[in-house]
Amino acid sequence: MNFAIEDSAEQSAFRAEVRAFFEKNIPPNLEHSVDPCDMSYEQYQLRRDLGRALGKQGWLYPSMPKEYGGGELSTDNVAILAEEMSKLELGLPPYYDAGGRMSAPTILVWGTPEHKKRFLPPICRGEVRTWQLLTEPGAGSDLAGIKSTAIRDGDVYVVNGQKMFVGSSHGADYSWTILVTDPKGERHKNLSWLMIPMNLPGITVTPMDLLATGGEGGSGSGVKNAVFFDNVRVPADHLVGGENNGWKVATTHLEVEHGGMGRLADRRVIYDFINLCKERHEGWAIADDPDARAELVDLYIEAEITRLFALRNHWLAHTNQPRTYEGSQYSLRRKLSGLDIAEKMLRIAGPLVLTKDKRWAPLKGNIEYFQRDAITALHPGATTDIQRVIMARRIGIGGREREKAANLR
Q1: pLDDT tens for residues 37-74?
Q2: Which of 216, 257, 302, 368 is catalytic?
Q3: Is 326 an annotated catalytic residue?
């Protein structure tokens, strides 16, 4: 009996269209960079060019409305697009754009019509790249504890403070930033979000050279930076979601960050590792060993469960189905299973998986990077403990009123 899921005629046609697009638009000199820290400026620009080509097609942010530069694709076609990009060792977008990935859905929910027209098309067309600025020296998982301020002064907000663990290399055009707009206000009711142009006077970006993986926006985002604001004057109409309403806006942002919309076609390296273990060399393969084969089966099951959680969340979010704890459930599962899978890889293949010498490292060093990334991924985008707390609140554990899932549309 064949349990494989096959494309419909319409899906096959779209998949063929996607493949033809990539054959035409992916530069022949585009190199695969295992670690974003190693990406040269030239390679980054090639990815930006590809992003702009995707943006013209409406495929850079394929689920966003067409009127704002998205593709407004069906859930199936978004998944197909992500799958085909993953086969090319690329993602959507093909460069680090954590701010765009999380600000765009948030602005779609909380922005005014003018905000949507101003900010969303440049993001969706790949014309700008956006960082997200949340964490500070004294506030990470406790986001409401931030201290950086944005004080209204006529038609501008004057921003002062510091943000940390901001990705990535080669700068950004905008920063989607949460700040205190009422220093004397009640906790959770004193915050706001600003879309800050990064070319304004008073902004200093300093690389955090000892940190090179993980951080704001998820794992694998390359070099981390500290961003300092010294009396930066930001136009007041760049505030999104209402003054001192930032915690409510943050619920949508964090729902996206925690996996509420799914992260499709993620972690292809896991399936590549399984195939690597089945390759025969001098008549022998790692998978011939019964213990290794049993571990590979467990590894595959773990990866598939996580992938299906992401696919479920994608479908729930984009078809406006009821949701509760699913985003944090997926995020928790992804974090814990990633670490477990990394340990399984090490047991199955031994120290070979830790090599990254490009001359002979397995899968061009992808496995070694996955090992490091699996450790750091436990922390960004809310720790495992925070995800458990959110899940408990969403299902009503602890004798308190059930917390509702944030709006995503």
Answers
A1: 668 899 999 999 999 999 999 999 999 999 999 999 99
A2: 257
A3: no
